[in-house]
Predict the 3D structure of the following.
Amino acid sequence: MTALLDLRGIGLTYPGPPPYRALRECDLTVAAGDHVVILGPSGSGKSTLLNVVGLLDRPTEGRYEFEGVDTAGLGNARRAGLRARRIGFVFQAFHLMPHRSALDNVTVALMYSGVPSARRRRTGLEMLDRVGLAHRAYALPSQLSGGERQRVAIARALAPQPALLLCDEPTGNLDSATAERILDLIEEVRAAGQTVVTITHDPVVAARGRRAVTIRDGRLTESTPAAT
Amino acid sequence: MSAAEVAPSRLRIRDLAGEGVAGLRARPARTALTALGTVLGVAAFVAVLGLTATAGGQIGKRFTALAATEVVVEDADEADRDHLDPAFTADADARVGAIRGVRAAGVWWPVGGDTAPEVGGVVLPGRSAPAQIPVIAASPGLFDAIRPGWSQGRAFDALHDRRGERVAVLGAAAARQLGVTELALRPAVFIDGVPFTVIGVLDGSARLPELMFAVLVPRHSAEEFWGRPGAGRRAKMLVETELGAAQVVAAQAALALRPDAPQRFTVVTPPDPRQLRDQVSADVGMLFLLLAGVCLLIGAVGIANTTMVAVLERVPEIGLRRALGARPWHIAAQFLAESAAIGSLAGWVGAAVGAMTVVAVALARGWTAILEPAAVLPAPLAGLVVGVVAGAYPAIRAARIEPVAALRR
């Protein structure tokens, strides 16, 4: 398997005052098709690492290669292009647009790569079908349960067929039974060949990964491989 | 893959427009309230422009052909500096009549000095002679100019006038007052004791209706007994022109009458209908247009305010869209598209409301509604401009929101 992500000596210091080193000398390689869990308590630099990996933030040190491209050499427009086509985000808070249908919430993921609207719609319906929500395509988020909302969010993340699915506490707002089903869905997606990086503080979620990395005070340490 | 092969994200114009409209449809009630101010502003603009045009058109209609073809030339002499010669020469009718566009022209003045002459009819038993009936000296051309109707007889002509014949024409009311009923008996009226044979009785006239109460005598006959027109009883000339010729005739009349002394006349022309209408538009319109402008401004502030609130409310959505590949200007364009869509919607609705107002007012007053395309068609565009201007600042603010901070909410 080739490396999808390659982080070498990544550090991020927020300019102060006082300056704050959120990440220091992080090394991480994620192979295509792998499921890596980044485990850490709150305030450990988890979210900062997610933002760097998701190209929402730039590291101040080190080298980050995404699919073999050094992201430091990319302008904001091309970084946005990678986010639109190659990275799918799943958030703890779902971040669905409240006044738009489930279908609209999925198809918006294809808008910024310039996919024509007919194809967006077709893909959106396929994706909703894939997460088992074909019958809820025209429901508003307020009419959906928490689990259904996260399914819509996963359908949105998968719609552009991204190289990387980046999950940030995907089950943080869900009860354990619903969380189980969401984790099953993520596992199912990974089994189909999708590379997944999940960031969590929840050991139950971490147990689903094929590989776990712990982050503490902005430093990454490879922990013992989780049970597969 | 190299850095150059990574394609930037993009936003198609169609999708941008779609998002703008979707933004409105998502919150219909809020959209309606946001648009309300601009709707009122645009409607006020259209209604004011339409109503001024309608009212102006109404004035234009009232402005009849009769008034538009009437020119009056007045003797402008000050009372204290009488000229030796009369302002209107004996051939005044012919001089003005020679101007192209003149149909008829006649001179007239009230006869008498400080006291009006005494007029009496045939002395019959039991009928006292009435004292005060105005006596008017008239040139024969006057009868053509006033468009008279005759109940009996005829007007005096140029021959009567030249010879100073003692003939008279009575207005309908004067004839009744004097007891003149039948011309076959050759009745006479006595003016200051001088008998004048009545040769015609007027039924009515389109111009100078006050002549119905008067006795008309040829101007030369009047001059013979009571002298020329003087202080307090200036001579005037009534000119009837072809339709549309009034302004041109007026410009030439004084010079045609007295090439040596055109300054002795003041010429009264009918007001130019167009000028009149413009004046009304200017007077009434300016104030209301100002109010409409204030209304539109308030509408714009309303849109700006709501868009600003929407931006703050939708910070997570902005963060999400940035994560999905939107660039800052995509975000700005989206909010601008939404405010522009609200503005255009307000423009369309406002134009319709304004037009309906004009029609309703015109219907209620029985007027002809006049809606200039130039007043109605730019209204939606004006709404669009208001929307874009109002949305500019919130859109810039939205574009500056950092995705990392936005997603943390």
Summary: The mean pLDDT of chain B is 84. Residues 12-62+274-408 of chain B form one domain. DSSP finds 15 helices and eleven strands in chain B.
